[in-house]
Amino acid sequence: MDLKQDLRQKLTQKLSPLQIQTIKLLENTTLELEARIQKELEENPVLDENLEERDDEGDVEQRKNVSLSEYSPDDSTPSYKLYVNNRGRDERPEYNTFSVRESFQQSLQRQLGFRKLDERSRSLALFIIGTLDPDGYLRRDLDLLVDDISFRMGIETSEEELEGLLEIIQDFEPSGIGARSLQECLTLQLEAKIDLETTKAEELIDKDDLRMKRVALEILNDHFDAFAKKHYDKICSKMNISQEELKGAISQIVKLNPRPGGQVDDSYSEQAQQVVPDFILEDNDGILKATMPKFRIPELRVNKRYKEYIERSGAPMSAADKEAATFVKQKLDSAKWFIEAIKQRQNTLQKTIDAIVKFQYDYFLSGDETRLRPMVLKNIAEQTGFDISTISRVVNSKYISTNFGVFPLKYFFSEGLTNNSGEEVSTREIKKILSDSIEAEDKSKPLTDEELVVVLDKKGYKVARRTVAKYREQLDIPIARLRKEL
C-alpha cells in the first residue's frame, strides 16, 4: 500500500484550560477553595494576593523617624528591639490550639500495665486489645484469634487462655469494653454498677435502685430478645413483675452506653466536621438576598514585574533568557486562567443561589418546611441557563446560613406529589407531617403505617402504605412496635 499525505479540516470540541479550571473549582467548598488558592499562590510566582494597606502602617513609619539620640548609651537593650509586630493580616485567628487526649488503645494498654502478667500473657492481651473495634467490641471469635496469634506471633495458645485474658480486659474502664455482643456489653456495665453499689456502706445503698438494677440484669440475661423486640407484656408475665417495675428496670438499661469505646477519643482532631457556609442569606424586612462571604477568598492579581518582563522580551535573548521567558509566560497564562476561573465560579454560584432563593422564596421567609416547593436540578438549570451538570456541581457540598439554621443546598431539592386538591407539594412537606404525627402519637400505642396513611389522607395527601414506610425509613424512624414505650 502506498503512503500518502493529505490535508483535511476537522471540527472537534475540546475543553479549554479555563473551562477545566472552572469545572474543578465549582465543586470546591469555601474551605477547599481557600486551600486551593493558597496552593496556587505558593506554586505560581506570577500570582499575587491584592493586599490592602494596613491601618498600622503609620506606627511603622513613626518608628522609622525616631531619633537615635533618644536612646541612652547606658541602656542595655534599645526599646525598638523590644517592639514586636507579629499580627497577621486577618484579625481573626484561623486555627485554635488543641490538646491531644489519650487514645482508646492507649487507655487500655495503660490499664494493662497495672496488672501482674508474664511476658507471654501481656503479649496476648495486647493482641486482643489491638483487635477491638472503635466501639470497644471484640468482633472476631476466639478460635479465629487463636489462628491469628499462631500465624502472626508464632505463639501457640487456646480459647480457654484467651477467654481468661479477655475477662481481665473486660474489667477495664470504661465498663463494657471487650464485649462480643450488645447483650454482653450492657450486662457487663450493669454488673459493674451493682458491684459498685454493694461495696458502699449499708446506710448509703439505695435499695430500690439496687433492686431495679438486678431486675434489669435479669431482663438482659434471660429475656434480651423479648426486650429488644419490645414484647413488654411477655416479659411482665414471665418475670411476674408489674409494668411500673418493668419501667424502672428499663430506665436503668437506657442509661447504659452501647458504644463504650466511643466515649474515649481515638483521634487527634475534632470529631465533628466544621462547616463553613458558602452563602449567607440576609432578610431585610422581607427582602431576601444571598451573598457569598468574601473574607476567606482573597483578591488575586498578576505580578506587574513579570508582566513587564514578558513585554520587554521582544529583544534578542540568550538561550537561558528564552527559557526563563517561556517559563514566565506559562505561569502568566496559568495565573490569568486561574483568576478568570475564580471570577466565573463566583458568578455561577451567585446566579445559582439567586435562582434557588427565588424558587423557594416562601420557605426562606418563614423556615416552615411545609412551604417548600418541589424542586429538581432541571428547574434551576432552566432559570439560570446553565447545564444540569453545572447545577449539580454547584449544590454539591455547599451550605447556606439562614436565620433558622445552616443547611446544605441539597436540602431544598425534593420530588413532588399531587394532593387531593390537585396541587403539587414537596415530599419534604409530607415527611414533615409524618414526623410531627409520630412525635405527637401515644407512645403506649404508636401509629402503624396503615394508621399513618389515614392521618395523611385526612390532611389531604393520598399516599400508599409502602410510600409511608419508605419515607419513615428515610427519616430513620423505626416501626410502630419498636417505638412502643410504657
Structure description:
The chain has 486 residues and is an alpha+beta fold. Among the domains are: 105-174; 181-262; 298-412, no CATH class; 416-483, Homeodomain-like (Arc Repressor Mutant, subunit A, Orthogonal Bundle). It is built from 20 helices and eight strands. Helix 1 packs across helix 14 (319-359). The protein is extended and about 100 Å long. Mean pLDDT is 80; it is low at 53-73, 86-100 and 264-272.
Briefly say what this structure is.
By secondary structure, the protein is α+β, with helices and mostly antiparallel strands.
List keywords for this structure.
486 residues; two-stranded antiparallel sheet; four-stranded mixed beta sheet; alpha+beta; 8 strands
